[in-house]
Design a protein that fits this description.
The chain is an alpha/beta fold. It is built from 19 helices and eleven strands. It has helices at about 15-20, 40-50, 50-60, 80-90, 100-125, 140-155, 160-185, 215-225, 245-250, 275-280, 300-310, 335-355, 370-375, 385-395, 415-440, 440-485, 490-525, 530-535, 535-555; strands at about 60-70, 70-75, 90-95, 205-210, 235-240, 260-265, 290, 295-300, 315-325, 365-370, 400-410. The strands form two sheets. The protein has an eight-stranded mixed β-sheet with strand order 6-5-4-7-10-9-11-8, with helices on both faces. Helix 8 links the parallel strand 4 and strand 5. The protein is elongated and about 90 Å long. About 45% of the residues are buried.
Amino acid sequence: MDGAGVLVPDRERSVGARARSGPTIIDAGAGAVLPLLPRRIVHQCLERLPFGQLAAVLRDRLLPVALLPDLVLYAAQDEASLTLAQSRGWTVVALMDKHSFLGAVHHIWGRRLVLEATSRLRTGQPHFSAHHRFGRGQLGAMAGGVVLVLLSLLLLPEAERLPMASLGLGIFFMSVIGLRILALLPADREKPPPRLRDEALPPYTVLVPLFREVSVLDQLLTGLAAIDYPADRLDIKLLLEECDVPMHKALAARPLPDHFEVLVVPAGQPQTKPRALSFALPFARGSLLTIYDAEDIPEPGQLRRAAEVFASHPPELACLQARLSFYNPGENWLTRQCTLEYAVLFGLLLPAFAREGLPLPLGGTSNHFRIAALRHAGAWDPFNVTEDADLGMRFARLGYRCGVISSTTYEEANSRLPNWLRQRARWLKGYLQTWLVHMREPAMLRRELGWAGFVTMQAQFLGLLISSLFHPLFLVTALWLAMTADFSTPFASLAALLVASLSSVIFVTGHIVSMLAGSVALRHIGIMGWLSTVLTMPFYWLLISLAAWLALWQFVWAPFHWNKTEHGLSSFQRRA
């Protein structure tokens, strides 16, 4: 796997061979020519290296090769690391091959690094980790809530039980409607940031976690190669699971540019995307970082635009979320509903949250980070299957802000129901995990987010989950009460009238607001005339309810299982 740069090469490369395959630094200044460090020596140096110094070596690619009195001698990987050493006044005496270096790191430190990635948040900030599903007191509170509900059902007259249950559920439905109303409020036009010259752009790391993605690999590599960013400031890392042999073979057969690296994540549990990202974080060489999924096709100027926005804002701006849309929106009814949903979320809701300074439930891709803020926040939680939304809440609690940028990444909309169901169940399970993690200490959460942020968080996570679970029941109950209400007693008449009226208001208001938001969002992305798609949204909500019950079942029996979303299923032409 020499071409992919993940395993130790079969033979050592000479400086000449390296030069033929890509640029090689051989001039260290003043006419000095640096030798290529043998693979065996790279291995020995990494074995001697204390683990506490490994993170700096992985980031800077400057490996100590000899310790002399008052002097340390280094091997540099490339021009960037050589320049860094010169700026620090360090002495570089050799070059090291990237492939040999990464292979030795994987062999010597791989298991330790993945253990660190898995346990970093759980041990360093356990109150933010989803490793334990319930915090102290949460089980007691839930048990008390169940007992209270059961007692209410037993003590209330039979005619009042269903009306009271409907009234309680109505609160959650109204909270979701409130978010849609917020999204429809007018917003100021985004001002473009000052443009940065190429030499002023910061180094940028791109992480791309891959698992069984051979079908979209060529599309991915084409999209990454089209990124409009100076190659000498670009650090693209393709993350492979150790067990994914087909991906290893596929990448080994494809030549990669010098600014691409392949990192192999050692086997272990939980095998999740955030675990792979956390493993790769110490290798990141940029001051900014973004994530792309396997099927992503980002607009070429997205990294440049994010860098310019970061440069014009203070360090408290920790993350920028780009818009997500689909390159196969009209393939079938399901892809049209997905497109409508994404248009509302990324075109209306998240910009509204950012505008009002509310916590952003980040999307799983195309979120751009200041790497210093990302590390301070504890990075991704390997045990949370919506690590993105969780990280958005954590940023808000730590005093950081998240924003949005007007650049789009195109993905593949799910065109097959079973695949969509698995993906949506994972999202909703992760929303439940995230809500439980951040509600371990509600009073502290309220102080950190403020009342507006606290209420928004409840609506975005608990409100969405409860309304998804009980949406069919709410509609059936409302219709049944409206048709069969017994008006023979005054209270029954009042209860029936109250429930029927409330249910009608919620039903009509929710549909009108949601359809209006959908229509507005579709116009924003240039789609007109999808009247049948908008009108059939309630059927899509019934599918979401099915996914919510699957999510609840998986939360109980398989809390950390990552439902794999299959890509490359669309028959539509992908964008170049």
